[in-house]
Amino acid sequence: MPAIAEKNVRWVKHPKLSLAEQIYLPTIAQGMVTTISHLVKTLTGTNSIQTQQYPEQKPSLPPHYRGVHRLNRDEQGRVKCVSCYMCSTACPANCIDIVAAPSPWPDREKYPELFVIDELRCIYCGMCEQACPVDAIELTTIFDLTGMSREDMMFDKEKLLSVFDQTVAMGTDPVRTKGGRLSVAAEPAGSGLTTSSSAQS
Amino acid sequence: MLFDLIPFSFLVTIVTIGIVFGAVLTAVGYSTLLERKVSAWVQDRVGPNRTGFDLGQPWLSFLKGFFGLGQPLADGVKFLLKEDVVPGHVDRVFYFLAPMIAVGTALLAMAVVSFGDTPVAPVLHSSSEGGLKAQRMFPATKTELAAMKNGTNIQEVRDGAKSYESLTTIKFAIAPNVDIGFLFVFAVGGLAVYGIVLGGWSSNNKYSLLGSLRSSAQVISYEIPMGLSVLGVLVMVGSLNLERIVDWQARHGWLVAYQPLACLLFLISIFAECNRLPFDLPECEQELVGGYHTEYSSMKFALFFLGEYTHMITTSFLMAALFLGGWNLPFVTDALKAVPEGFPDFGYLICCAVKAAIFCGKMGFIIGLFMVVRWTILRFKFNQLMSLAWKAMMPLGVLSLVGVAASRQFIEPDYAKLIFQFLWSFASLLLVGVASLMLPGEPQRVPVNLLRGRAPSASSSPELSAKAW
Ligand code: SF4
Ligand code: SF4
Q1: What is the distance, to the nearest Å, from the Cα of residue B411 to the centroid of all Cα atoms in its chain?
Q2: How confident is the model at residue B128 (pLDDT cuts 50, 70, 90)?
Q3: What is the mean pLDDT of chain B?
Q4: Contact, A26 vs A85, CB < 8 A?
Q5: Which end of chain B is more exposed for a tag (fewer CB within 10 A), N or C?
Q6: Which of A73, A80, A81 to mutate to test the pocket of ligand 2 (most atoms within 8 A of CB)?
């Protein structure tokens, strides 16, 4: 039994070349005109060069870009995370370390005493973001992450919260939260669409 | 004194070699930069523009990022400092030898190529030149040429010359007036393929081997049209000596006008010889990783690179000398004829500089052509490569040679030769084009699974042959 049935085979003919094409030279000359016109246009600055002069000129990335993480704050400036371990469970790279502690605030049971993400191990898949029930962890558009040592790249809670402050100040919030105002899933119960899970939004 | 034992001409040659070596290596470096810049410009990009020189002087601060002029230097330093990985499975002797051959042959070919106005040796044993005495040596400088015309033995002139005062003219080639001229370049250039073949073979890697096999087949095929195209030059000028060819063109006009077809064939052949796109099958990244240099790293890879670009420069100089008139430029060099020759004269230096600039400008033009063509024509398939060489360029080469020979033998004034050659070249192109249109195309490919359980060949199967056009 042939893998392809004969009736499904369509024979494609080589296009017949004209004499000019067969001699190559006229068509090559045509091609050279295109090439050189681009060259001349670039040199005289009459066409739009797409190159961004990177360190001086930052790219504007779409809000769903998956860069460095941030830990969101709620309206009172506290860390939003409730230490549910959903993100570290979902993380395929096992790079989230959380130490939970009883919450000092009455509206939740736990809060993260320690929250460390190894940014070098992270594969920036965004699974943590999807798993989080309270939209506490998010990936931002910051992409040019550098550090002098491996320890530098272990982002702890303070660092991650400072990324939040930084991105709010820059106005480059990720998709789900705008200006620090959290999305529906994090809103107090009874205020509306609390049943829709954040993973679907 | 020991110094007296060393002939002065020897010292001059050593210095010339040093200068040529330095100049070629610098030119290679900057042609890699130009390559990147041209690719960027053609693709509407900017190209390298950051690496520059920070000399600590405020008024030189524009050099910091100026056109990325520091890029070749930075590349060189990077290549030198990179780890040199030698895979365990290579044949070490040939593995180390291959890059040396590649770069050595390319540089060796540079020896006979001149880049300025070199003296032309008079024809020996010729009564028309006033019965010059045959000598064992050829003049290397104009001083020696003058001495030869006076009937002095060059050897004596050379032996007598012991100081820089005797050096009155600039020597523009390491070995000027080599009578086998461009034959030497081809012979040495043909050796360059050994670097590639050995590199591929000793790497013990199928990609490298395939790349080097392709390269050898390609170079062998394209050497034939190349040889045929320069045979025309030999017929026309009657000499392989590059200086004499340039001199002929100074008197009669550029050979590109006399043999446009041969010039075209030569141009295409040097593209193939230098493994440039559209003929860069030996190292096509999409199929062969890196081709013959897949297993090379660090400075060894850089040597291959160096060899390739040196080859480009050499062949461009050769093309400029053979077909584009060398240092001649109508009107400009005619105006320079009145300038007296000899060192103390300032005008002579200007004259030399202008001629060298013209020569190098022509070389640069061809290098630029290399780069623009790279972004214009797609890479050929291997069968197309071969059929271009054997079915199109070989017949064209023969036709062009016939035309040149006929015009040399039967057609007298130069302008008639020009017209005849133009028409002949055009007709030959058309003829070969029409002929190749009538050749049978590629055989129809039949999927293997359609043939299973059927007649053994596609042509004997009635249904399939009905479908095959
Ligand atoms: S982005 Fe992916 S890999 Fe990185 S921390 Fe989140 S879940 Fe883990
Ligand atoms: S999933 Fe969200 S709330 Fe749960 S531990 Fe992670 S960041 Fe905190």
Answers
A1: 31
A2: very low
A3: 78
A4: no
A5: N
A6: A81
More confident residue, B58 or B265: B265
Confidence of residue A80 (pLDDT cuts 50, 70, 90): confident
| Selected residue with higher pLDDT from B337 and B89 | B89
Look up residue B14 and give its two tokens: 């050593």
Residues listed for chain B? 469
B173 neighbors B12 (Cβ within 8 angstroms): no
pLDDT in tens, B423-450: 888 888 888 888 888 877 666 666 665 5
Q: Which residue, B236, B277, B276, is CA-closest to B256?
A: B236
User: Do the beta carbons of residue B404 and residue B262 sit within 8 Å?
Assistant: yes
Cα separation, B73 vs B84, in Å, equals 19
- Is A33 an interface residue toward B (CB < 8 Å)? no
Query: Would you list the domain boundaries of chain A?
Result: 17-46, 69-189
CB A80 within 8 A of CB A161: no
Three-class secondary structure of residue B446 per DSSP: coil
**Does residue B136 register a pLDDT over 70?**
no
The domain made up of A69-189 has a fold known as Alpha-Beta Plaits (3.30.70)
C-alpha–C-alpha distance, residues B221 and B239, integer Å: 25
Buried b (16+ CB within 10 A) or exposed e, B377-413: bebbeeeebebbbeebbbbbbebbbebbeebeeeeee
Please tell me the residue having the least CA distance from ligand 2 atom 4: A84
Can you name the residues that pair with A98 across neighbouring β-strands?
A: A115
> In degrees rounded to 5, what are phi and psi of residue B257?
-75, -35
Q: Is the dihedral of CA B360, B366, B370, B375 positive or negative?
A: positive
For chain A, the straight-line distance linking the first and the last C-alpha, in angstroms and rounded, comes to: 48
Mean per-residue pLDDT for A48-71? 83
Grade residue A192 by pLDDT with cuts at 50, 70 and 90: very low
Report yes or no: B458 and B446 within 8 Å, Cβ to Cβ. yes
- Vertex B28: Cα angle to B23 and B33 (nearest 5): 125
Which of B34, B37, B44 best tests the A interface by mutation, with the highest count of A CBs <10 A?
Answer: B44
Between A26 and B289, whose confidence is greater? A26
Structure tokens at B187: 């012979």
Could you report the predicted ipTM of this complex, rounded to two decimals? Answer: 0.71
Q: Both tokens of residue A94?
A: 């096992």
